[in-house]
């Protein structure tokens, strides 16, 4: 078994930006979500996830309630709670986790089966709805939780439960007489199985993951009686490509179908490619990644443009006010990018991973951690969004919980395991992908080394990295695509470096006592979209470093889209006390004088004189809607082309 993963337990975040969010997740959000899952949080949509397990275990009376995959909400919470123990050992939380795991064990059937929907609601329908039943999806999330709990605490109670469940799945699925020769409708178990393989060294986990990845898209696919829509309008949305089952992965050209499923599938496939050394699978993933990022990703790192089917549509179809861009899909994209970095350490993967984490992922959670977005649009006009059917998935304010609540606990587990994303390893080389403050421990053949990173990101392009311990580290430092004047110094002296795949290769390995200072400029700049993106033609977005900026009504005026920015005018940066301290931006331009129009005057000859000069204030996109409901605008109309 290869040691390729630098896990959450190896890297603890100590960071002004992320550290506060993780602290809030540990101290407030984990308990809040536990109350929700136990149906004890006033005003939150009912979960019933814990109750379902207690009923299945014979500890309570009642019936199953919730989505068919309701168990996965609890699984993601357990995973996040396990990782939170890295930051704060909490006896009460550990007791709650142990009690919940015992309940899960009591709910498990003698043959290893565990899924409360089918145990309580349709016990005679196990493994009959592979396309939409989510049994394997639920297993995947609970297996991830089991691995996290084992890695953090050393306790294998949940891992043993899930291993028995996986052994049952191995007996049910596969090639050969009497087995179901298929693959999950909703991918997730593939990446979870590889995690279990890495944690235990047991080949059976990897073999099952490889089977599911390789079998996907092959005939007969799902059981014949399930089928896919073959005729009519719905086949456009829920056909084979909805499940990424339209072709084997090596023959797929684009990310298709349900965006979360696609991201989880590609993540699991990349894990399998890394562990098996399969170059053809790696090549297929590189092709899919290039096409996804180059044609189907929002500037915020969001993916999945259509609410119907929560799916990808066609190249360059990236509407701003009706886009779906589910929080879980952005998390899935970050996961996929991390796996691509493990396969091939190229900074382009880290650039996109960083973009998703700093924008579309954390826009899904409020500053206090108790309200959430499922959908993350780039433009919102509240009155329109509340009325029009094609905006029905768009919330104009974050909510306390969802009936389908896959996103809230997904954000929590991502925050509490953020250390996983900072470094990757390739042989003896360690790659620093993100300049996030952290303390990381690396064990090598020559001993142990500790890296401490202090940083001012994402507000300033500065970081200080110090090394402690007996072992040296062959460190590679990412040069972000937006970085200007990238410099490295040691003891005040400039370090010469070479560049390989977007990483700075130092003149020597760093060792005990070395302190490397990283600095670069992050200039706020206007970004244009490919002209093929019809929604963004004649518009520009504003980015600074990894952050995408947006305009909110509260800082500006009603009818934000009446503003036209002047790209040749400089962008003003200013430190603001908003949200505990941010870098805010201001751009110059003009806006239509709405007051000059009578409300009953719908059309009239165009009149340039109705424009008035004005300034528009911008804040980071992830912070929108933390000060009440109002308009949002990310892509600004432009009155000309920017001349660098």
UniProtKB/TrEMBL annotation:
Query: Which keywords does UniProt give here?
Result: Hydrolase
> What are the protein's GO molecular function terms?
hydrolase activity
Write down the species: Candidatus Gallacutalibacter pullicola
Can you name this protein?
A: Glycoside hydrolase family 127 protein
Q: Where is the Non-reducing end beta-L-arabinofuranosidase-like GH127 catalytic domain?
A: 10-419
Domain Non-reducing end beta-L-arabinofuranosidase-like GH127 C-terminal as annotated: residue spans? 525-637
Q: Which PANTHER family match?
A: DUF1680 DOMAIN PROTEIN (AFU_ORTHOLOGUE AFUA_1G08910)
Q: List the InterPro entries.
A: 6-hairpin_glycosidase_sf, Beta-AFase-like, Beta-AFase-like_GH127_C, Beta-AFase-like_GH127_cat, Beta-AFase-like_GH127_middle
Pfam families hit by this protein: Beta-AFase-like_GH127_cat, Glyco_hydro127C, Glyco_hydro127M
The Gene Ontology biological process annotation of the record reads:
carbohydrate metabolic process
Which lineage is the organism of this entry classified under, starting from the top rank?
Answer: Bacteria, Bacillati, Bacillota, Clostridia, Eubacteriales
SUPFAM superfamilies given for it? Six-hairpin glycosidases
Where in the numbering of this chain does the Non-reducing end beta-L-arabinofuranosidase-like GH127 middle domain appear? 429-522
């Amino acid at each position: 078994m290869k040691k390729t993963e630098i896990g959450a337990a190896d890297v603890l975040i100590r960071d002004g930006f992320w550290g506060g969010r993780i602290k809030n997740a540990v101290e407030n959000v984990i308990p809040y979500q536990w109350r929700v899952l136990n149906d004890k949080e006033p005003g939150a949509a009912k979960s019933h996830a814990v109750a379902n397990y207690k009923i299945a275990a014979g500890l309570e009376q009642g019936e199953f309630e919730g989505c068919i995959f309701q168990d996965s909400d609890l699984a993601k919470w357990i995973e996040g709670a396990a990782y939170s123990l890295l930051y704060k050992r909490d006896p009460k939380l550990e007791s709650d986790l142990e009690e919940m795991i015992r309940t899960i064990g009591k709910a498990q059937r003698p043959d290893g089966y565990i899924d409360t929907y089918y145990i309580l609601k349709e016990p005679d329908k196990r493994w009959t709805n592979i396309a939409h039943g989510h049994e394997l999806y639920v297993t995947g999330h609970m297996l991830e939780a089991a691995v996290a709990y084992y890695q953090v605490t050393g306790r294998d109670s949940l891992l043993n439960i899930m291993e028995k469940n996986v052994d049952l799945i191995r007996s049910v699925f596969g090639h050969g007489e009497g087995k179901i020769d298929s693959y999950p409708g909703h991918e997730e178990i593939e990446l979870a199985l590889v995690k279990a393989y890495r944690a235990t060294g047991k080949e059976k986990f990897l073999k099952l993951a490889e089977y599911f990845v390789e079998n996907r898209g092959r005939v007969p696919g799902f059981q014949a009686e399930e089928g896919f829509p073959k005729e009519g309008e719905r086949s456009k949305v829920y056909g084979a490509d909805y499940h990424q089952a339209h072709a084997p992965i090596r023959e797929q050209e684009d990310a298709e179908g349900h965006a979360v499923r696609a991201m989880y599938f590609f993540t699991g496939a990349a894990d399998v490619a890394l562990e098996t050394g399969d170059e053809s699978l790696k090549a297929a993933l590189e092709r899919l990644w290039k096409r996804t990022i180059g044609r189907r990703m929002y500037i915020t790192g969001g993916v999945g443009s259509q609410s119907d089917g929560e799916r990808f549509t066609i190249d360059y179809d990236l509407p701003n006010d009706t886009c779906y861009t589910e929080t879980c899909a952005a998390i899935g994209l970050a996961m996929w990018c991390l796996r691509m970095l493990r396969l091939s350490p190229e900074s382009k993967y880290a650039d996109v991973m960083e973009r998703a984490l700093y924008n579309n992922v954390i826009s899904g959670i409020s500053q206090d951690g108790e309200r959430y977005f499922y959908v993350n649009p780039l433009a919102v006009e509240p009155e329109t969004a509340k009325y029009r059917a094609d905006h029905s998935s768009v919330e104009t304010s974050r909510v306390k919980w969802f009936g389908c609540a896959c996103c809230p606990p997904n954000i929590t587990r991502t925050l509490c395991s953020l250390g996983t994303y900072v470094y990757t390893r390739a042989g003896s080389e360690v790659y620093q992908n993100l300049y996030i403050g952290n303390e990381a421990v690396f064990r090598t053949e020559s001993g142990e080394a500790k890296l401490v990173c202090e940083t001012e990101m994402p507000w300033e392009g500065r970081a200080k990295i110090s090394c402690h311990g007996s072992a040296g580290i062959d460190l590679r430092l990412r040069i972000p695509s937006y970085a200007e004047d990238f410099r490295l110094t040691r003891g005040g002296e400039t370090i010469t470096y070479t560049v390989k795949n977007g990483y700075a290769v130092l003149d020597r390995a760093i060792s005990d006592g070395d302190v490397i200072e990283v600095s670069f400029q992050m200039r706020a700049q206007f970004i244009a979209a490919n002209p093929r993106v019809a929604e963004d033609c004649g518009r520009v977005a504003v980015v600074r470093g990894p952050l995408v900026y947006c305009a909110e009504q509260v800082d500006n005026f009603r009818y934000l889209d009446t503003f036209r920015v002047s790209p040749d005018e400089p962008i003003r940066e200013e430190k603001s006390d908003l949200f505990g301290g941010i870098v805010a931006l201001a751009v110059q331009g003009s806006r239509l004088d709405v007051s000059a129009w009578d409300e009953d005057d719908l059309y009239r000859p165009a009149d340039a004189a109705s424009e008035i000069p004005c300034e528009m204030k911008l804040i980071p996109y992830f912070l929108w809607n933390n000060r009440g409901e109002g308009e949002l605008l990310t892509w600004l109309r432009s009155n000309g082309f920017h001349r660098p």
